[in-house]
Structure formats: structure tokens, C-alpha cells
Specification:
seven-stranded mixed β-sheet, Jelly Rolls, about 35% helix, alpha+beta, about 425 residues
Amino acid sequence: MQTPEPNAPYLDQIRETKRLLRDQMPDRAERFAWMNAHIQRQIDAITAERTGGGSPIPSVNFDELDTVGIAQRDRIRERGCVIVRKVFEPTRIAQWNEQITAYIRQNNYEQKSASKRGLDQYFSALSSARPQIFATYWSVPQMQARQSEELACTRCWLNRLWNSTHDGADVFNPDLERTYADRVRMREPGDATLGLSPHVDGGSIERWIDPGYRQVYDAIYRGDIAQYRAFDAAGRTGAREIPSPAVCRMFRTFQGWTALTAQGPGDGTLNIVPIADAMTWMLLRALQDDVPDDDLCGARAGRAMAVSPQYHELLLRAYVPIPQVEPGDTVWWHPDVIHGVEDRHDGAGYSNVMYIGAAPDCAKNRAFSRLQRSAFERGMSSPDFAAEHYEVDFSGRFTPAQLSPRGRLQMGYDLA
């Protein structure tokens, strides 16, 4: 049976949007040339850092967040990513890693999942095979980490890297998180089938056709392109994604994960293009005259936004592995940043993480919290993900009675 073309319902909208954007940008070739030069300068800097033995991905220690200077914060904004180290004590992380492993094994996750494989199609166009990601959302370690003081402080600091106001009004509250329940990666050494190709989450064709996203990128499409700022929140909470399993309906200032094991280059872990405004280049690339009127450089509705050698070779020159991280370190990247997972895990130990991003309080995130709260109470999958619902009858699942006061706020128990 032939798989339906995901863009089929949107082809007329894609053609019309491209016509409108091209008409309002008679200088689109010049804008793209300016971006080419801008991106190339960043690639040259990234290459020089790697040649000198360093990493282009900024790194700060958790206990030094209050002393990070303006220059370092600006570098994080330019690169769109940061590693915050030593957020959790290694002994606590080791206990969490053991607890999650036991939770998965004792509840026979793998046997139950065999009958449901194929429900999650979001990454089907990207992955060498299905990533070794476990659809558990409500284990005790995951929930304890989400409501922890350490991550509350870290995410508040990350949120404040953004300009969270627009025209004198708050776009989001940087000091209150709304939990976005995500999954766990536990990748075994020697695996060669579970990679994830370079991509961007949070929508694909929406970045051109959705009015909310067009407000986000207004400076790119109509204004002074040099004035675009990836960390300006205007429009972000009004963007709307095409519904799909695993497409995030929350606004995240940063995607992220917490390392449960040591991992680094070659360990089957994260690669990234550390250029916050690479999305600007991608948006303009799709509007150039060599791209067909009904094509957005291969972007597909309801899928992650693929980054391909055919259209995005320049950006892929800056695709680099994260440096070594230790248990308790956290890794964060802007929602527009290109990232992927190495095809091979050539390391000696498991490469395990808990996916926990930063999703500050705003109307968009409150709406999702109401949906997610019900799923949490019943042990169902998070509403953004495939309806696998493994944990409904899992022993040892975290319950509402175990929430701290902060955790209750994060889960939306203050909302009607």
C-alpha cells in the first residue's frame, strides 16, 4: 500500500505562501547572499575552535550560573546551545539510572512494545532505524528531575537568555515552568542502527505557511534581516504546529536532556549545528528560484524538518558532536537549532539520557498542561506522542500524591 504524500493537503497553500513571500522580497537573492556570508563566518569560527582542540558548544557550571558574564551569554545566544554541567550529583544520577532501568525491565516494556511498533511515524524519514528511545513519561526519576530545585534554577536561567517581552507585555513567564513530559533514551554499546539524521523539531512546513511563525520570522521575510534575533520571543507562543505524533505543541525556549551516563563523540549521542540563526538561511533557501514552487527543500508536514545535503550542504559543514559530558550534566539547544543522533554507538557503555526541556508558563503551554495532566493521572502517554500508553498498568509509576508544591504548579494543578 502506497504511503500518502504528507504535503498533499497543503500544496496549494505552499505555492500561494511562496508566491506571497517571493513577491514581498524582490531582494531575496541579495538577502540569501548576505546570509551565506554570515553563516560562512560562523562556520569558519567553529572550524577554528575545533582545529584548536576546543568545542564550539559553550559550557558553564551549574554553581556558576549567577556569575556568567555578558560575553558568555552572547556566545550562547549566537551558538544556540549550551552545556550546563554538574546540575545533579553523580550518586543521585546513578540511582535514577538504576531505577529507570528497573522500571522498564520489571514492567516488561520490551515485550509490550513489540506489538505497538510503528505507531510513532514522526521520525520515519530521518532515522536509520527507530531510535532506542523508551516511551516512558511517568517514572519516579523523570518526575523527580522535572520538579527538582536544580532544574528549576537552570531553566529559569535559560529562559532569561530570551527577550520574553513584546510591546511592553510578557510573552512568557521565565520563572515558572510547565512540565513537558518526554521520554528516555537508553542506547546500548555497539548499536549501529538507531541514528537520527540532522533535523529541526517543532514543525516543518509550518515555519513558512503558519501566520504565527511568519510573525516570528518577520525580519527575515520583510524587515532588516540583520535585525533578526533568534532569542526574541515575539510570535513564538502564537505559532501553531500541524498535529502529529511527537510534534511538540508546547513552546520550548530550549530542548534538552539530562545525562544519566557519561557520553561524548562516538558514543551514539547528540550532534548539533551550533548556529542559532541557521533557520534564517533555511527559510530563505526554500524561496530561491531553483526550488520548485510546491517544494520547501524537502520539508514534510507532520515530520521533523529534515536537513539534507541536496539543499543544506553549507550548514552541514558545521555539524559537530557534543563534547564529553558526565552523569548529571545537562545539554540544551534552541528550538530552531539543527541536531541529530550519531548512527553508530562505538563506545563501551550505555548512552542514557532523560529528555527534559524548558517550557515556561504562557497561554499556549497552559492549554497543553490541561491535556497532559489528565494523561499523567491515568498513566497514559503524553498527548504529543504516539498513543502507546505502556505505563497505564506499570508498577512503581509516579503518582499525583508524590508531587511537590513546585511539581503541582508545573503539572498545571493551579489551572481550571
